Amino acid sequence: MTTQIEDLVGLTEIAERCNVSKNVASGWTRKHTFPEIKHKLAMGPMWDWKEVQAYLFPTPKVEVRILKGDAFAYAPKSPCDGCGSEDVRIEGDGELKITATSAWVEYVLHCNVCTREFDRELELKKEEA
Ligand SMILES: [Zn+2]
User: 72 with 95: CB under 8 angstroms?
Assistant: First the structure.
């Protein structure tokens, strides 16, 4: 993936676009799994926004086997969009009803720390039996 100049973001932009404080954004960027720094200026390091987005808001995938009609799958937890906490709960204990025709399901998570509510999409890789 090539980085275009308009894709470059600093800490301030990451914080603004994710609606979090610079402190929270700074904590994210210090994790060793965070995307690599693309460029460094006096104002600080810069990252590729597309890589940051893919890192912060990944689309999880689950494999489900649908025998006849509907099936259930369990949604994976993901860290809070607001504070980055992993202390989150999924509405309905994460049990998702999947119909034979659905390729995506949306589910809602609640952060136990900052009480933010956020949602995720789950892409289904289905295997018809
Ligand atoms: Zn939170």
Answer: yes
